[in-house]
UniProtKB/TrEMBL annotation:
Keyword Membrane among record annotations: yes
Single annotated GO MF: nucleotide binding
Name of this chain's protein: 8203_t:CDS:1
Record field: transmembrane: 117-139, 159-183
Annotated keywords: Membrane, Transmembrane, Transmembrane helix
InterPro entries: ATPase_P-typ_cyto_dom_N (IPR023299), HAD_sf (IPR023214), TMEM94 (IPR039720)
Length: 538
């Protein structure tokens, strides 16, 4: 995004010029060398405020990413930092295009084979001529009494050259045949339409305009679908192995996806809350408005404030319908508010696994009101780390269970293994919101079409400094984010705040609204986790 004439516009990278002011989010890649337009204290920024080309903009760009000043600046900027370009990206792209060597064409390779063939003939003939004339010279010296040293130059140099002179013109007839064949084909293309020839006979505009599908290539070189699709659903279970349900794309089915496990119906008690979350937390048209069948993508205004992985933009409403939900079941819910939560100082950003899939932990929560009910419901999806940080219980299909260290370690192990296997994970959570005296929340009575959401930036956990100091004496193989969470868990700081909310409409302030948003995202119930990957193209 480029700021020109005071307006934020979207421009391709090749149209940027030196001196442009661009907005960068955590996770964006610098198109060229750029400098931060600093608004905070100079001590918080790295040396020279410079971000080099192709570098990822991370919180580590600042000297102390956990400082209060950096956090306040992130809140003020709403995650958007302005940089001024010190170079023109187009110049670098042009230089790279000119320096890069083009692959050899088929005609060039064939001509190179002929050249090497003629070189071999010339070398063989020249070697034979030199050998024969050297033998003649030696025999003449041995037989003749007077000697023939004056003929050495003629025998060893001139005669071999005479031997290869008749061979030199041989490539010219071959070259003539090649040029004549190329000219005949070119003349044929100019005078007659050759339907079998694609070279210089297909309109480039028509080719691009008729493109119906775009593919991508994964890190193993396999041609894959451009959008990530769900592969597995993970459900935690106490004292037992977690439940894994495999999902497969199947265009022959009604909704395009199916469960590969035959006994998936036995897990409906855990699938129903997840299916409701999948269908409500999307905007691909399942509730109202235009429906987009292909591809199922969901757009969130959260992308304006933070960079998210492609899996977070994939709509899984087809899976919710496969579980059994219909339109009648969804029409009873009215969306009231969206809460965007981001943790730019999360301990997981310092872990090695973040080098594989770098993304600032974030969470999108939606508040829904069900018609005929007195309460509200909060449905969340986001990164595994931040979801776990705000969950105190989990749903096992029958009852609520308190989140324990054992369950958390199982979830983290599955999450890390999925990331290592080039998958992307999304966690889902839920929480009921009750209001005393069966009243409604005053600031949630606006139009549900209000697109303005609440933006929350979580500060750095105060336990992180103490954890880093104690890390040397801890022999457990746990990540930094796990250690921080376990410390909070043991201190009973993750207890669910499931108290009923009470609002005094006559004395309601903006501070009360902000406090409500910060409290309501805590004490959630962990539902499930989904792994998504780019499926091979069939």
């Amino acid at each position: 995004k480029v700021v020109r004439d005071g307006v934020v516009r979207s421009f391709p990278t090749t149209l940027l010029v030196e001196g442009d002011v661009v907005e960068m989010l955590y996770g964006d890649v610098a198109p060229c060398k750029m400098m931060l337009i600093q608004k905070g204290p100079p001590s918080n920024v790295s040396s020279n405020n410079i971000l080099e080309a192709s570098h990822v903009f991370k919180p580590s760009f600042f000297n102390d990413m956990t400082s209060k000043e950096v956090w306040e600046q992130h809140v003020q900027n709403r995650g958007r930092y302005q940089f001024v370009l010190l170079e023109t990206p187009w110049a670098n792209s042009l230089k790279a295009a000119l320096v890069q060597d083009r692959p050899a064409t088929i005609i060039y390779k064939q001509a190179d084979v002929l050249r090497k063939f003629f070189y071999r003939i010339l070398i063989i003939v020249l070697g034979l001529a030199v050998g024969i004339n050297l033998l003649r010279f030696i025999l003449k010296e041995a037989i003749s009494e007077n000697g023939h040293l004056d003929q050495a130059f003629e025998l060893l140099v001139v005669f071999p050259i005479y031997a290869i002179l008749p061979i030199i013109p041989l490539p010219f007839p071959t070259l003539w045949l090649i040029v004549r064949a190329l000219w005949n084909k070119f003349r044929y293309l100019l005078t007659k339409w050759d339907g079998t020839s694609l070279t210089r006979s297909t309109n480039l505009f028509e080719s691009l305009g008729s493109t119906t599908i775009i593919c991508s290539i994964d890190r193993e070189g396999t041609i894959s679908s451009p959008f990530a699709s769900v592969d597995q659903i993970y459900f935690p279970k106490a004292n037992e192995d977690p439940t894994l349900l495999d999902i497969a794309e199947d265009p022959s089915t009604e909704f395009g996806v199916k469960f590969e496990d035959q006994d998936w119906n036995q897990h409906l008690s855990r699938l129903k809350p997840l299916g409701l979350n999948l269908l409500l937390n999307t905007n691909c048209g399942v509730l109202r408005g235009r429906k987009r069948e292909h591809q199922h993508r969901k757009y969130s205004s959260f992308c304006i404030n933070a960079k998210t992985k492609p899996a977070r933009q994939s709509c899984l409403c087809r899976l919710g319908r496969e579980i059994g939900f219909t339109d009648d079941a969804l029409n009873a819910f009215a969306k009231k508010k969206e809460i965007f939560t981001i943790a730019p100082c999360h301990p997981s950003l310092q872990e090695r696994i973040r080098n594989d899939q770098w993304e600032v932990p974030s969470m999108v929560s939606s508040i829904y009101e069900e018609e005929g009910q007195s309460g509200y419901q909060l449905l969340s999806d986001g990164n595994t780390e931040i979801i776990l940080d705000n969950c105190s219980d989990y749903w096992d299909g029958q009852r609520l269970q308190a989140m324990s260290e054992e369950i958390e370690n199982k979830i983290y192990d599955f999450y890390e293994n999925s990331v290592i296997n080039d998958m992307q994970c999304i966690a889902y959570a839920y929480r009921p919101i009750n209001v005393e005296n069966l009243k409604r929340i005053p600031f949630l009575m606006d139009s549900p079409n209000d697109s303005i959401g609440s933006y929350i930036v979580l500060p750095c956990p105060p336990e992180i400094d103490q954890i880093v100091e104690e890390e040397e004496n801890d022999d457990r193989d746990l990540s930094l984010s796990q250690k921080v969470r376990l410390k909070r868990l043991k201190a009973d700081q993750l207890e669910a705040k499931l108290h009923d909310f009470l609002f005094d409409e006559s004395a309601l302030t903006l501070q009360d609204e902000e406090t409500f948003y910060h409290e309501v995202i805590q004490g959630q119930i962990f539902l499930a986790m989904a792994t998504l990957c780019h499926q091979p193209k069939l």
